[in-house]
Every structure is written in structure tokens, then in C-alpha cells.
Design brief:
The protein has about 220 residues and is mostly beta strands. The protein contains four helices and 14 strands. The strands form four sheets. A four-stranded antiparallel sheet has the order 4-3-6-7. The radius of gyration is 18 Å and the shape is globular.
């Protein structure tokens, strides 16, 4: 598994960013290549420790700020992702990014090299505020202890049903069921089941049904 991670991450020497396309750039989206967290991890932890982090790699943490030297703290953390790239829906402006790697035990590497992205918009006022597709993002630390936030992005009004499921496939909590307008909506789960009892540590799945499709996000609870 370490070798596989090395092939996936070893090529990165810094954070790479790019405007996705003319249309996406007009909406203020930019893509951050998260694989660069490997460099920061090796520098911060040393090669042996970094190998352990990558063998238990859980996800990447993406940090953003509007000034250089973005700190790796909760106020600048915008999302976590297990993917090797990440699309940030931030609007027009000058944005600074750093990425770190987080293992299954919540050990976090040092930050990657910082990059700056300048986004301009040619869209009509208000147009860039609506999402372009059905997307669900996990906000905050994952694994988590107290609560975690899911952001649902809807390009149009839709019936929405979202529930939490255990690893055995049983539904343990429902977060929402109803009609939601186009836009971005936050749903918080406090790690409790439908009876209000704290769930045990483990892996859980948040399933969003909307617009005739489904999105599933995996989260882990620590106790």
C-alpha cells in the first residue's frame, strides 16, 4: 500500500493550481491539486514518519486565505477531500492555498508550498452564486469527535432526503427531508442517532438523494 501511495503522491513537489476552464473561471471556481501534501509531510515529519502517514492516509485538508502565509488552523480550513484534486467554489478575488495530508489517526502533515490564484468573473451579478451541479462537500475535520458539516450544492430546486448509515447499511439518523431551493445548504450531524444517543466510534456514510441522483460521503467518528 505504501508503494501505491508513493506512486500517487511521490511526483508532487508543491501545490499546483489551475483555472479549470473559461466557463468555470468565470464562475470563480479553481482546482487545487492536493497530492502536493506529500512534500509538506516529508519535510515536517521526516521520511520514516511520512511513510507511516501515507500508509494510513485518510484524506487531505485544504486551507485558504486572502493573504500570504495561510496558517493551518480551523479558521482557514475550507474542506477535506480524499481526491487528488479539489474544486473551490470561491468567488472572484486573490486566494492563497496550502494543503496537508491527514492519516487515519488524525496525524496531520506540515503544509505544502503555498500558491496564489487570481480569479476574475465575467458573469452577470448573482449568476456565480448558484452552483453549477449537484455536489456534496464535507466541511471540517474528518475523522471528527463532536460534529461535522455537509454542504449540499443544488443548481435548482429539488426534493432532498439525507440520512446517516452505519457500516452495516442500517439507517441511524435522518438529517433532512423536504424541498430545498437552488443554492448551498449546510447540514450538521452531531454524531447521534434518531433516539439522541451518541453513536460509537467507527465509519459512517451520509447519503444525499436529490435531483434524481445520489451522493455519498464517508466520515469517521472518534471517541
Amino acid at each position: 500500500m505504501v508503494g501505491e501511495m508513493g506512486r500517487r503522491l511521490g511526483h508532487a513537489t508543491g501545490v499546483a493550481t489551475r483555472a479549470q476552464a473559461a466557463g468555470s473561471a468565470a464562475e470563480g471556481d479553481q482546482e487545487v491539486v492536493t497530492a502536493a501534501g506529500a512534500t509538506g509531510a516529508r519535510e515536517a515529519l521526516g521520511q520514516d514518519a511520512a511513510v507511516q502517514v501515507f500508509s494510513d492516509l485518510s484524506h487531505y485538508a485544504v486551507y485558504r486565505g486572502n493573504e500570504p502565509d495561510v496558517p493551518l488552523d480551523a479558521s482557514h480550513l475550507i474542506d477535506t477531500t480524499a481526491e487528488l484534486s479539489y474544486v473551490d467554489p470561491a468567488g472572484p478575488g486573490t486566494w492563497f492555498y496550502r494543503v496537508s495530508a491527514v492519516d487515519a489517526h488524525e496525524n496531520e502533515s506540515g503544509g505544502s508550498n503555498e500558491v496564489v490564484v487570481q480569479v476574475t468573473s465575467s458573469a452577470a451579478p448573482g449568476d456565480s452564486e448558484l452552483p453549477s451541479s449537484f455536489v456534496v462537500r464535507v466541511r471540517g475535520r474528518n475523522p471528527f469527535v463532536d460534529q461535522i458539516t455537509f454542504t449540499l450544492e443544488l443548481p435548482e430546486e429539488s426534493e432532498v432526503e439525507t440520512s446517516i448509515y452505519g457500516a452495516d447499511g442500517r439507517r441511524i439518523a435522518q438529517l433532512a427531508h423536504g424541498t430545498w431551493p437552488a443554492g448551498r445548504h449546510d447540514f450538521r450531524w452531531d454524531g447521534r442517532n434518531t433516539r439522541g444517543l451518541v453513536v460509537p466510534a467507527g465509519v459512517y456514510f451520509c447519503r444525499f438523494n436529490a435531483l434524481g441522483g445520489q451522493r455519498v460521503k464517508q466520515v469517521s467518528v472518534l471517541r
